[in-house]
């Protein structure tokens, strides 16, 4: 039995981690911490877990020793505390933004302050198993990517060698902004919007550049959806491509990937990737179309931001690190209709 | 390995049955039929199943022999054909409205025509394991209840002896009307409504009367939601009740039921049952409140109409009939947020 | 030119009042106050008003003299300050809960504290012109009703003499809770709910009793909608009614009312009242159905909670008081589709 | 009094035209035709118009003589019949796609067949008053633009001289697909999608090229919304621009335009154009941001597809042609919250 803890467990990513860990017979959740929900049952923060566990949130001040620790603290909170946390776990998977960037300079540029533990940055592989499987096994750690970054990196990666000018137009659900209520998340204001919340210069550009070598131009819109991201990647081509070329690039990159599906049908309502049917699943669906005579490849990439975009990738990374079947505990295929 | 077939598999209930059967290692889906999707892959009708199976829909004219057959034909279609279908399966679980009512007279009254196989009616127990577990085992069959009826019967059943005058005000999602497009399901018309689609005289009243002995007054509203039902049951009381009395009735009825949860909290956003966090789960959440000095008990009951309200109850019934753990394959707890 | 001020103008009701006043050529908006938005343009709080006016919010400490003052302060804030405000206006229309109840005892019971100016209560007629037109003209004041109360009172009023036992099941949009963000209005939590936010004992029961004489049993659900209320009133009858009787009661009450429409069609998607097509309009749509053999009359009542449920009724009351055509400035019929 | 007819009045654009014409005291609606709703009251198709008019739909075979005729027939239906219709009206404003393109070759290319009345094409100015005011007055006709085209042309027009490579990523509501129910508009399928319904090669590219000289690369997504379009125009720049340059281009193009607002705020939820607050209004809101160091100008353009994207522009064009104040009957500013 592998013991597991979740540090910072009352947020949305913490809740998904708890759900996924509790569903496993080979894992034992021994601790889940929360300052705000200290002493309360899991289902007070995560109502879907009612009846699944008698656990209560414990204090983040007393950390137990475990095999695998998931850290789901707010951005900026784990970087100075990580050294201490590492003492309590064989493996640590961080889901904040703190360990995604390898370069402390890049961190300073995009997050506006010095990193608290720059020497640890090289010890956390970027947490996409599709790109860093061997490194994860070697280092026993992972830094789960940002959700917008995940959908962009996975859609762009197969084409990184031919993608010079890339415009990314992403649409995301409200859960991506986390659990704290704010004026911008107030239902009458947030409902039904197509809000350009990051018109330029989204922070995830740094991760995308690091992982694909492409400095994308990026605009992110908040849309009417709770879970899910749909990212449209417009790649301008120097020379025309044919459909079979695109298929070739995709197969070369993802032939054996258990969680990447190429979605492209000639009919039906789901001809291209669609986040709404991915809620709860760990799939990353990728589709494409070529603009005839216009030298543009359009790639569509859809994920559940809390699963493949956060907790799902974290669990998948843990499976990789522990030498398990990567799909373990991540079999839920999503629902239709929903 | 238990062999399974789904007769009429391209509708929403058929899709959920396929998802649930395909997730099981102890079941083998050997046939799924569809006239409209004949020859196509499962994921053409059920896009969430992409990559899970290579099966294709076969003709409803050639029925294979199996251990368990789920019939998910349109209402009225299975009653005349059931005799033939019974030859091909040890156990049959019907999800249409055709075998829910025990009394052919009641069927004629509510469905406007004679039943095609009245002699079979007594052989199909009403498909709520909570009420008919022993009978299902004995007869090896079940008729899965209507979705509005499920939420009403399960909420009302514990109080049937004290409920004289009952008003049921139900709110349901668009998937309850099935997969066929119509003017009333056109997105610009259906979106955001609170539409009294059955202001009086909903057919499910017949099932509710049969199962609880109460002839409820019922109004059903279509609301903005794809999956889910929330039924509010207003029970007028002859004499005042205390909270502990209500808890007593509920515990007496459901103490050991694996899929019924009593939801009643003093704080938080999910103090009472909420269908949105039940998508994909088989739970029936029940909550209540007493109207001080007014002799009214309000019972709230929430389900996923395609799960506990259809395919989930059907799988649960199969588990009962096969002598398995009832929870098998129905462990998904639902998502939050969603 | 009639001069108008809005005291407490940055909330949702204040915004609607501003929109309605600015659209009028016979009215001059001379002041709109706000503590939180002091010094900012109207469109900072009310983005739909961009370009319509150069006004800025002024301090609530310096009140100008006007012909008509609308007070849209938070509940509990206007009752102690009203005496002072009355000095600055010929006519005052209050949209808070403070002056709706005639009886200080009732106020204490439902709002949990003593009223600050009980002697003023009799000077504010309940602000439904349909019920208190003459009294408004006489007193030159009005207290705009609560939004849930409006939909219940107007639906129940015609039947008050035959309604003994009444159960009210109301469904309301998120704007009814006002402009302040909270955990319960956080989009991922609020989106898609059918939340029993007032399972019993909603405060508006007091207004309903005062205006109809019926002590209703009431349950209010928050549903997925920003604007709008749909209230279903289940009236149990002592003796059967015929359709024509119901029409008779409705015509007797509302024959000449410009903002009440009886909505009952034999076909189409809008056979009964539907709040979604009332956004921005001042209509109160009322429909009904009789439960055959069950002695129940079901009345459906739909309004826009910010219009007929607040600002619209306030403007209509002003028109009445000023001796104008009641419909002035309230002609917008709502949109379809929306 | 100007007499008006609407030919093809049961669709969504026909309904908006009827609403706008009926709200005017200077216009008399003398005929509204419909094959499908022949003989029925207006409110059977347009429920928001209940109580506003006693008119009924008449046959499209008997056309009355009027001052202004709006044709709102399905695409392809008006081009062969237009010659006959022109005999019955001093002015004709067509809202179909049939007369938008000046060049019959372009029509054949994009609509797949020969135009039925190519000689009439030059007599219909493209129906954006912002670009063709004088020509409309001269010819007395207009061809209302496509809704996606409107949002793209108006956002791109000011920058057409510096826009070489342009990627358009548009998000549209379900009403843009019209009133006919289909599998793709079925609520359970359409709800909550981010569906790339036109991944490349949307027909409106032809209009955009004609009006701006730019051959845009275009992707259109169907999103969760009934009314509204938000179009994001990514313009790659040869050389960097400053904010004041962009303001300069915008002012040069739109300084005195009554229905174009530049929306760009430093705070609040509505810093950029947002379609949700434009429902029912004729505004075209335009905002922008410059990508630092990346030579990209992002332009955001939001409209109500049925108003500025169809019926609103048609009424505005009529006002221009008749020499009236352009804003007449188009004063509704939209609602907030909604």
Relevant terms:
12 strands; Rossmann fold; 27% helix; homotetramer; globular; 7-stranded mixed sheet; Dihydrodipicolinate Reductase, domain 2; 338 residues; 10 helices; alpha/beta; 5-stranded parallel sheet
Task: Write a structural description.
The structure is a homotetramer of 338-residue chains. Helix content of chain A is 27%, strand content 22%. In chain A, α1 packs across α10. In chain A, the strands form two sheets. A seven-stranded mixed sheet of chain A has the order 7-8-6-9-12-11-10. The first copy, chain A, has a five-stranded parallel sheet with strand order 2-1-3-4-5. Chain A is globular. In chain A, 59% of the residues are buried. Chain A is of the alpha/beta class and 338 residues long. The longest helix of chain A is centred in the last third of the chain and has 16 residues, at 307-322. Chain A contains ten helices and twelve strands. Chain A folds into two domains: 2-124, Rossmann fold (3-Layer(aba) Sandwich); 147-305, Dihydrodipicolinate Reductase, domain 2 (2-Layer Sandwich). In chain A, β1, α1 and β2 form a beta-alpha-beta unit. The interface between A and D is large, with 48 and 48 residues.
């Amino acid at each position: 039995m592998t013991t597991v803890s979740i540090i910072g467990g009352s947020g949305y990513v913490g809740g998904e981690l708890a759900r996924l860990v509790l569903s496993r017979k080979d894992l034992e959740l021994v601790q889940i911490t929360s300052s705000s929900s200290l002493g309360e049952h899991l289902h007070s923060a995560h109502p879907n877990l009612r009846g699944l566990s008698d656990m209560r949130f414990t204090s983040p001040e007393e950390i137990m020793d475990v095999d695998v620790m998931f850290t789901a603290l707010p951005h900026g909170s784990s970087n100075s505390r990580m050294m201490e946390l590492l003492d309590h776990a064989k493996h640590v998977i961080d889901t904040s933004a703190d360990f995604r960037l390898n370069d402390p300079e890049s961190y300073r540029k995009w997050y506006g302050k010095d990193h608290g533990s720059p020497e640890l940055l090289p010890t956390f592989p970027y947490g996409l198993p599709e790109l860093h499987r061997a490194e994860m096994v070697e280092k026993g750690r992972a830094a789960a990517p940002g959700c917008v970054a995940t959908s962009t990196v996975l859609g762009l990666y197969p084409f990184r060698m031919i993608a010079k000018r890339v415009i990314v137009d992403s649409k995301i659900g409200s859960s991506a902004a986390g659990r704290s209520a704010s004026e911008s998340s107030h239902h009458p204001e947030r409902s039904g919007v197509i809000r350009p919340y990051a018109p330029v210069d989204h922070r995830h550009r740094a991760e995308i550049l690091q992982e694909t070598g492409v400095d994308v131009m990026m605009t992110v819109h908040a849309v009417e959806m709770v879970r899910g991201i749909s990212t449209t990647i417009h790649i301008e081509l120097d020379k025309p491509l044919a459909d079979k070329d695109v298929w070739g690039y995709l197969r070369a990159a993802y032939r054996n990937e258990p969680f990447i599906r190429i979605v492209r049908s000639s009919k039906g309502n789901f001809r291209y990737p669609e986040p709404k049917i991915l809620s709860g699943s760990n799939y990353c669906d990728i589709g494409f179309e070529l603009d005839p005579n216009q030298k543009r490849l359009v790639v569509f990439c859809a994920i559940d931001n809390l699963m493949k975009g956060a907790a799902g990738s974290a669990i998948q990374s843990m499976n990789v690190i522990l030498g398990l079947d990567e799909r373990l505990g991540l079999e839920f295929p999503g629902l239709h209709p929903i």
